[in-house]
Design brief:
single chain; 219 residues; alpha/beta; Rossmann fold; Arc Repressor Mutant, subunit A; 6 strands; elongated; CheY-like_superfamily; LuxR family transcriptional regulator; WalR-like; DNA-binding; Tscrpt_reg_LuxR_C
């Protein structure tokens, strides 16, 4: 059983996320707090496996500040940010500080659940849009410099679709996640195969794994 603590300064977000997660057989929501200081205090008395936190908090402490303090005092706790913030510098700072997961709030609670399950197995989980930021953060360099021209020619949306295909997400679910039609996803898939000169989803996934756009161990 995985113990979850939720930190967000919006009570409706905390309540909704907790309601969803506590219905999962392998999770227990042991705490719901609205300030970083309450989270730090809670962790002094209760065992927690994963902290799910917003990045922007109405406090003198940012999400990254909380992450650093928690990692210093409780290094075994995994941290997943569930936030609207997707600026390069903020995301990179969070990952370099030790965040195992980063999910954008445009995705629903099921994406948070997937992130929790992934980080509990000592893997990283992040929204598709953030792949390139995270690759650069983990390598300390701009990973695009080592990419072939075929990858550099892809649009941001095509890269998102490629990552989801590599995760073996069905076309219908990809369409739902990206708020487009399934026919649009099929068009992106066709464009990917043409630009990458491959003939199947396996070929698309191969590029994603080979050039570090996704960890081959992610489920």
């Amino acid at each position: 059983m995985t113990n979850i603590l939720i930190l967000d300064d919006h009570p409706i977000v905390v309540s909704g996320l907790a309601l969803y997660l506590q219905n999962k057989d392998d999770l227990t929501v042991v705490g719901k707090v609205h300030s970083p200081h309450d989270a730090i205090q809670f962790l002094r008395t209760q065992p927690v496996d994963v902290l799910v936190s917003d990045m922007h908090l109405d406090s003198d402490l940012t999400g990254t500040d909380v992450l650093v303090r928690i990692k210093q005092a409780h290094p075994s706790i995994k941290v997943v940010f569930y936030t609207m913030i997707e600026k390069n510098n903020d995301v990179r700072e969070a990952i370099l500080a030790g965040a195992e997961g980063y999910v954008l709030k445009k995705y629903d609670a099921d994406e948070v659940y997937r992130a929790i399950r992934t980080v509990r197995h000592n893997k990283q989980y992040y929204s598709p849009e953030l792949v390139h930021i995270l690759v650069r953060a983990s390598s300390g360099a701009d990973a695009r410099d080592e990419e072939p021209q075929a990858l550099r020619n892809l649009t941001n949306r095509e890269r998102e679709v490629m990552v989801l295909i590599a995760r073996d997400v069905p076309n219908g679910e990809i369409a739902q996640k990206l708020s487009v039609s399934e026919s649009t996803i099929n068009s992106h898939r066709a464009n990917l195969m043409q630009k990458l000169d491959v003939r199947s989803n396996v070929g698309i996934a191969h590029f994603a794994f080979k050039y570090g756009l996704i960890d081959s161990t992610i489920n």
